[in-house]
Amino acid sequence: MSPLVGARTHRTAAQRLSDLARLRRVRDRIDREYVQPLNVEALARGVNMSAGHLSRQFRPAYGESPYAYLMTRRIERATALLRRGDLSVTEVCFAVGCSSLGTFSTRFTELVGMPPSAYRRRGAGAAEGMPPCVAKQVTRPVRNQEAPVAEPQLA
What we know:
This protein is 66% helix and 0% strand. Helix 1 runs parallel beside helix 4, helix 2 crosses helix 3 and helix 4 crosses helix 7. It starts with a helix and ends in a 17-residue tail after the last helix.
C-alpha cells in the first residue's frame, strides 16, 4: 500500500471515530435534555456537524433518526408518568417536551401499540408490585419498529 493510501485510510478511520464520539454526545444530550425543545439543526450545531450529516450518520449508528430517537425517549418517559396515573395525557405530553398532543398520541400509539389514554387506564395497576427497574424494562417502548398489531379474533 502506498503511503498516500495508508494516510487516507488512517484519516478516514480517525474521522469515523471522531464522528462516533460526536454522535454519542448527541445521543447523550437527547437522553439528558429530552424535555427541552430540541431539533436536528440545534443538535448538529452543538457538535459542529451539518444537520444532514448528523442525520445520515446517526441512523446507521443507532437504528433511527435523531428525531425518532428523541421521540422514543419522550414516549419512554411518558409511559412511566402515565402508569403513575396522577397526570392527564395532555399534562404528560407537555411534561415530556412534546408541543403537539396529536403528534405525541400518534407516536405513542405507534411505539406502544395503544393510545396514551388507554395505556393510562390499563397501566395504572399493571406494574404494581414490580421493582421500578423491572417495570421500566417490561414497559419500554418498541424501538425501530411499530408495535405489533394484535390479530383479530374470530368468534
